[in-house]
Amino acid sequence: MSSVSTSVRDRVEQLRTTITDHNHHYYVLDDPQVPDAEYDRLFRELQAREAEYPELATTTSPTQRVGSAVETNFAQVIHRIPMLSLDNAFSADELRDFDRRVRERLNRGKTAGESSTKEHSTEDHSTEGEGSKEERTIEYVCEPKLDGLAVSLHYQNGELVRAATRGDGYTGEDITANIRTIASVPLTLRGGDFPQTVEVRGEVYMPRAGFDRLNQRLGGRGEKTFVNPRNAAAGSLRQKKSSVTARRPLEMCAYSVAVSDESALPPTHWKGLQQVSEWGFRINPEMSLANGADQCLEAYEALMAKRDRLPYEIDGIVFKVNRLDLQQQLGFVSRAPRWAIAQKFPAEEELTVVESVEFQVGRTGAITPVARLKPVFVGGATVSNATLHNMDEVRRLDLHIGDTVFIRRAGDVIPKVVKVVQDKRPADAGVIELPAQCPACGSDVVQIEGEVIARCSGGLFCPAQRKEAIRHYASRKALDIEGLGDKWVDILVDSEKVETIADLYRLRKADLIGLERMGDKSASNLIAAIDASRQPLLWRFLYALGIREVGEATAKGLAGYFGSLEAIAEADGNALQAVSDVGPIVAGHLRSFFEQPHNQEILQSLKQAGVIWQTQEITAASMPLHGQTWVLTGTMEQMTRDQAKQKLEGLGAKVAGSVSKKTSCVVAGEAAGSKLTKAQQLGVEVLSEQGLLDLLRGHDVEV
Questions:
Q1: How far apart are alpha carbons 550 and 577 in whole angstroms?
Q2: Is position 306 annotated in a ligand binding site?
Q3: How many domains is the chain built from?
Q4: In the annotation, is 556 catalytic?
Q5: Which of 413, 498, 518, 669 has the greatest number of C-beta atoms within 10 Å?
Q6: Does 270 share its domain with 209?
Q7: Is 177 known as a binding-site position?
Q8: Confidence grade of residue 91 (pLDDT, cut at 50, 70, 90)
Q9: Which residues of 11-28 are buried (b: 16+ CB within 10 A; e: fewer)?
Q10: Catalytic residue, candidates 145, 271, 645, 654
Q11: What is the residue range of 27's domain?
């Protein structure tokens, strides 16, 4: 007689049933029924019960999905029904030929699509798929062709007993231990109308988001990353330790069912998939029914249009004759069924050769290596260039000039090098090195320690950064040159009227008259606005220079501490870091900017043009909140939080995003949440929106 009480057994069974149901809603239906915290509580309770009573442990318990550290032996499994591959169609004509062959073998003649569209309506779209022998169209199930690994799952009395890979179609590998770790695979079938013995087939795949996270994690540990989600899914499913598989974000989607007693099968493939869904499997929500080749082609175009928006990768669409009796009548050829075909989408990966590497300069000065490729057709377009992102990526790939590489292009995504074929590297392959000088202007290329991106340091001079530098200089938070918006910056630069910010102050009304949409009054207004910016406050001018990481608050801190631009330009890294908000990286950006002769030349040109930055207003009186840290939370009625932030920073405060012991004050608007609670716990002063308005008015700030 067991020592485990009935109440404990009942509770364990109840927990398993509840957790299994929650898993089904979360992983299969995408419809969570409880918060994560509640799920975790139930799961931990079940773990504790099973640990206390080992005799209650079962292989089908939800707790067993964590996998084992014991190495798996991939024994061979012979498929009772071969897992054959599919023939492929690469064009509309090839799909129509497939449909014609199906109808001819079934003695059905031509489709309505080859004569008139009217007869398309003769096919019954019911899930039973019944129809007369005189029908002229065939009903097909249209299924997204998931880019993963085909698997076969065997259930006995509703319990998963074996899982195998497709292998060569006749013999696969036993991967039961690893399959058990996948949350969307039911360990026991739901309901009670399943056969005693049943085999469900499907595709194991890795969603895009999970793939990206996995590669980031592997790359962060210096480990080898995967080329694509299919490669990642296959590698994860064949791990020798199922505990490793359990940590991989795998999913499984069912696409067919076979049972030992075939009389138990529904009459159509579509109905069979609905049955599989009721047993607890995920089926693809993008599936549809189509009558004849024309509707199949419409389904193909519709699916390809949304391909890049799907959370997983697909490489085509599979068309299957819906009625199982017709499938049986059509039969198989040596390697594929006659009743199904895959129409492939344009390939997203191809091999080509890196012929050279060039370095481009972005509008913010980022230096990006770009691979020049031997042209290759991939993702529906001919590709001759691919981004390499940064030198860390070049080193991670171990890329050399002359290498043969995998190129990936999905939809409108910029082509990317994802893998180097090391075995094909030529003896004279060239090493890729970061240039010391900017290819656009010759300024030094700098890479601050701790940053991935290398940048041109000639921000005010570099042609590649010209428009961005002028836009920022004229922006509202900088020198606020009214009327000098993005479009006018484009016109002035493209017409070669302005090359640097110093050229703005040399513009005359006559230079502007005649430009597109520039009349007499507009020209006068723009010249007046530029003239009005000749005497900016030092902090505004410093911010307007566009130095990396130097925002408004940092600019105010630097201006208040040093008092002049010359003192800031001459300060070394240690002196700069004496200012609040200035750390080693910001100090490095400041030193790089002021050390460039081109930038000094433009500063001198600004002086000669009459630009004189003012310092007298950066005083304790005008910056009464200097050194204080404020936090804004909740909703404000009389101003936005951005406006409130700007006004507080105008008084010298630093506005942070979180509350700590160093916080000076929290402004709490309507529906303030955790930040207000934490401020109260720490004893931090709290102001209402009205309190903030009173404070601002007391310092003569317009509200």
A1: 13
A2: no
A3: 5
A4: no
A5: 498
A6: yes
A7: no
A8: confident
A9: ebeebbebbbebbbebbb
A10: 145
A11: 6-66
- In the chain, the amino acid numbered 620 is A
Residue 84: inside a domain: no
pLDDT in the model for residue 451: 78
Q: Are strands 629-633 and 665-668 parallel, antiparallel or unpaired?
A: parallel
319 and 467 belong to one structural domain: no
CATH number, domain of 671, equals 3.40.50.10190
85 is in an annotated binding site: yes
Q: Which of 200, 337, 204, 323 is nearest to 266 (CA)?
A: 323
Task: Specify whether 610 is located in the same domain as 519.
Answer: yes
- What pLDDT score was predicted for residue 141? 97
Report whether 86 belongs to an annotated binding site: yes
Considering just the CA atoms, what is the radius of gyration of the chain in Å? 34
CA 492 – CA 482 distance, rounded (Å): 15
Are 611 and 633 contained in the same domain? no
| CA separation, residue 487 to residues 151, 361, 517, 647 (Å) | 57, 22, 11, 29
- Domain co-membership, 465 together with 488: yes
* Structural domain includes residue 168: yes
Per-residue pLDDT reduced to its tens digit, 312-349: 999 899 999 999 999 999 998 767 899 999 998 877 77
DSSP-derived secondary structure letter, 514: T
Place of tokens 């519709």: 302
pLDDT of residue 193: 82
Whether 449 and 499 map to the same domain: the answer is yes
Note the pTM of the prediction, 2 decimals: 0.54
Is 467 within the bounds of a domain?
Answer: yes
Residue 581, both tokens: 């908000």
Q: SS3 of 391, please?
A: helix
Q: Is 37 annotated as a binding residue?
A: yes
441 assigned to a ligand binding site: yes
Domain boundary among 407, 431, 455: 431
Q: Is 115 inside any structural domain?
A: no
